[in-house]
Amino acid sequence: MRSLVWRGGARRSRRQSTRYPLSFGMSDNLPRIRATTILAVRRDGKVALGGDGQVTVGETVMKANAHKVRALRGGTLLTGFAGAVADAFTLFEKFEEKLERYPGNLPKAVVELAKDWRSDRVLRRLEAMLIVVDVNHGFILSGNGDVIEPDDGILAIGSGGSYALAAARALAGSTDLPPAEIVRRSLTIAGEICVYTNTNITVLEPTA
Question: Could you give all domains of the chain from N- to C-terminal order, each with its CATH number?
Answer without folding.
Answer: 3-8+33-198 (3.60.20.10)
